[in-house]
Design brief:
Number of domains: 2
Structural class: mainly alpha
Helix content: 55-70%
Shape: globular
Distance between the termini: 47 Å
Largest sheet: 2 strands, antiparallel
Radius of gyration: 25 Å
Strand content: under 5%
Length: 342
Amino acid sequence: GWGSQSSKVHIHHSTWLHFPGHNLRWILTFILLFVLVCEIAEGIVSDGVSESRHLHLYMPAGMAFLAAITSVVYYHNIETSNFPKLLIALLFYWTLAFITKTIKFVKFCDNGVGFSQLRFCLTGLLVVLYGMLLAVEINVIRVRRYVFFKTPKEVKPPEDLQDLGVRFLQPFVNLLSKGTYWWMNTFIKTAHKKPIDLKTIGKLPIAMRALTNYIRLNEAFEAQKNKRSSSPQGSRSIWRALCCAFGRPLLLSSTFRILADLLGFAGPLCISGIVHNVGKGNNTIRPQVLSKCVFFISSQEFLSNAYVLAVLLFFALLLQRTFLQASYYVAIETGINLRGAI
């Protein structure tokens, strides 16, 4: 593993380490995959108006989509095995992708392609996404001090994962596993085979235990006492301490719920667009031709395709349910921790 640190520690689970910017990297990758799907669809729709096939309109986007998925799998295995030096491959890939997309974006500007064409907007988004992923990779190098530094930062596994009795792995899995509850599959299979007991469930992680949450709430309450000359009294002081200690996850839960409610509007809008376009019976798109075998369509023309709206509807509903379940989970977990603290 080229200087792996995993051989220096003793762990009992397959996942334990999150590199700096873990959640941001996964979020950017999900957005990248969605933009690449839009780019593939834009190329297919643009190609559909010509008599011959033009693979250059969607094949590069398809290859980039496969590369993005490969990068996620590659990163996950490096992270769980703690091989930070192997991330140098991703550093080179994001650099090359950022440079090539920037060149393509500049060429569009030189040839008079503007915001009215969807492909121009998608290319600009890809430049931003690849640049942000490159920045995340550079930040990992800066924080972990690997490859270019003589003294890399030693990382110890969380105390919870050194305990065989802890089986609640939600805080230590990647963002995709959290969103899909994939980490619970082992527990569900065990419960399906035989009745579960306390030993099967295991111990709670340290961060979720009543003593830990009591200390957090007590520190918030004592901080208020130190700010005021007199001791805080009454329900208002309790509410302030609760908001200080547990306000951040509740705010996160509220944000997830707002996003889910906003995505709820996508269903009626997409269905309305599909019914309108099917009833109209004319999905013919005549894209702008700037040069030979190069077709460009606008965002309005792209969204006038019923198949595109159907795919957007699927993604919107999937994302809506994901945000809704995440909101429920964070709120229930925070409520349990709050009651334990009180």
